[in-house]
Design goal:
Two copies of one chain form a homodimer. With about 130 residues, chain A is mainly α. The first copy, chain A, is built from five helices and two strands, in the order H-H-E-E-H-H-H. In chain A, helix 4 packs antiparallel against helix 5. Chain A binds a DNA duplex (30 and 30 nucleotides) through helix 2. Chains A, B: It comes from Cryobacterium arcticum.
Chain lengths: ~130, ~130
DNA sequence: CTAGAACTTCGAGCGCGCTCGAAGTCAAGC
DNA sequence: GCTTGACTTCGAGCGCGCTCGAAGTTCTAG
């Protein structure tokens, strides 16, 4: 329980993000971190608030289906600095399109499921 | 090109459902079909309109993330007849809950992505 | 000094959902 | 009769995203 140091142990990050410590280490190995995660004298990882912010955002990318390879591409660009802003924006905008499409498809599928449920709800007609 | 016989070749079903012929055979092997797919004298599969309807619905279950094991469970129940109506309804209702939750999560993630995009769109502030 | 918990690295393994290739069969057209 | 092409079965393989276990280190408390 690090008191108020702003630095978080990996277990604390896991708790706050809903990821496992295994996944956090995996993400780091996979090159998804924006900046190298700093280490304490014990060689333990110490996450900053900025790290946590990024991890939170990356889980949103992941939960909308952006492949890890694309998240890495985004992180790679971000590490290169301001010059890549346009590329990062484009990546996000392209992803946005696919997310919107996914939402539409899910909603359509949900409607079909709801319709089926409504058929079951009428005791008479078999579904 | 089967003229108007109501019976469809696997390639035609693939075209209409967006699945591949490989996937269609895989689904059958996996026990996802409601009724056995009939065969022509050539041993080729011949799908009926009812088969197509079911396959269309099952892709909606799949596209909303219902695992194949659950689709099979549903199909198994359906094959058992009317007595299992309540179970099938419950399965769909349970799935519905998770779909709604997924939609909410995706929408929240989309909002975060949109916010990030809006930051990029302001030329000044770096994102 | 010792025990225990929390961390470390590394590489292997796994579950899911397809995806594919090999080898064979069948019907239709030339 | 022969070729072409769409189909068949079967089992192996694969890509993704973790997930896990082994073996070792370090800090903290008792």
């Amino acid at each position: 329980m690090t008191p108020h140091t702003e630095e978080l142990a990996i277990s604390e990050v896991a708790e706050r993000t809903g990821l496992t410590v295994h996944t956090l280490r995996y993400y780091e190995r996979a090159g998804l971190m924006l900046a190298p995660i700093q280490r304490a004298s014990s060689r333990h990882r110490t996450y900053t608030a900025a790290d946590l912010t990024w991890i939170t955002f990356l889980t949103k990318l992941r939960s909308t289906g952006l492949p890890i390879s694309q998240v890495r591409a985004y992180a790679d660009l971000a590490r290169l600095g301001d010059e890549t802003r346009a590329d990062r924006l484009e990546l996000l905008q392209r992803h946005r399109i696919t997310v919107v499409a996914q939402l539409a498809e899910m909603q359509a599928s949900l409607a079909a499921i709801d319709y089926k449920i409504s058929l079951y709800a009428r005791k008479d007609t078999p579904a």
